[in-house]
Amino acid sequence: MYAASALATLALGAVSVAAYGEQPTSSWKGSNGATVVSYLTKFDNVEAGLIGSLPVRPISPLGPYNSLSFNLNALNVGQGLAGVKPQSAPNVVSFDATFQPLEGEPSFTSDFDDSIVDSFNFKSFYFGCVLTNVETAASLTDDCSIHITGYRNGKEVASQDGTFDDGSLLPSASAAMDKVTLNSGFKNVDKVTFAINGVLDSTLDAALLDNFSYDVTLKKGYSSITA
């Protein structure tokens, strides 16, 4: 995996744009009167730590950011001159075979302490895979597919596979991410999980994800996320 960066979990604190990381793209009243807030989450406001000139593997997952809590590692991959290029530089989120035994299932959710979000609509994201490499800031790309599952109140309500093709018959030195547009089942979920498909790929690969597009529906009594 790309060697990585991430500070300890970002504290949610007051309900503010600053605490949540990035400015929402828009907001409106839903059909039931609840406030809906839209995000394009690029993870680029997460501070990155370096040892020398190399990013370092995160100590803990990202945590609360842009109204949801991410059980994914935040990585600084720079401009992506080698390996998978971030959809927006410099940061992505990631997981690999070493992640789940330490941190649990790769996921993001609206169910966490002090959350003001009832549910969210997961619309799209970008991703790619690299051959796991914990020592350097770059690794060869690798074709892969990932399984995405949506939940509501602990029950599975949606699933879909996404495919990354680096455009080469062999692992490549550099490739752009591929976009996954989620099906309508990912509306009004409160948790989404990720897994790399295949025994070999799930052991050898790291998945890098970027530019999550989603709308969150605020709980009753909350009308906005204020700066």
Supply the CATH architecture: Sandwich
Give the overall average pLDDT.
Answer: 83
Radius of gyration: 17 Å
Q: What is the number of helical segments per DSSP (H or I, 4+ residues)?
A: 3
Spans of 5+ residues with little confidence (pLDDT < 50)? Answer: 1-19
Shape: globular
Count of DSSP E strands?
A: 17
Number of domains: 1
The major beta sheet can be summarized as: 7 strands, antiparallel
The helix/strand series, from N terminus to C terminus, equals HEEEEEEEEEHEEEEEEEHE
Measured as a percent range, the helix fraction is under 10%
| SS-based class | mainly beta
CATH topology: Jelly Rolls
How much strand content do the residues show? 35-45%
Distance between the termini: 35 Å
Kindly provide the name of the CATH class. Answer: Mainly Beta
Quick tags:
44% strand; globular; 227 residues; 17 strands; Jelly Rolls; mainly beta; six-stranded antiparallel beta sheet; disordered N terminus
Gist?
By secondary structure, the protein is mostly beta strands. The protein has three helices and 17 strands. The protein has one domain: Jelly Rolls, CATH 2.60.120.
Can you tell me about this structure?
It is a single chain. This protein is mainly β. The chain has one domain (17-218): Jelly Rolls (Sandwich). It is 7% helix and 44% strand. The chain contains three helices and 17 strands. The strands form four sheets. Strands 1, 2, 7, 9, 11, 15 and 17 form a seven-stranded antiparallel β-sheet that branches. A six-stranded antiparallel β-sheet has the order 5-6-10-16-12-13, with no helix packed on it. Strand 12 and strand 13 (155-164) form a beta hairpin. The longest helix has 6 residues, at 199-204. The protein is globular and about 50 Å long. The N and C termini lie far apart (35 Å). The model is unreliable at 1-19 (pLDDT under 50).
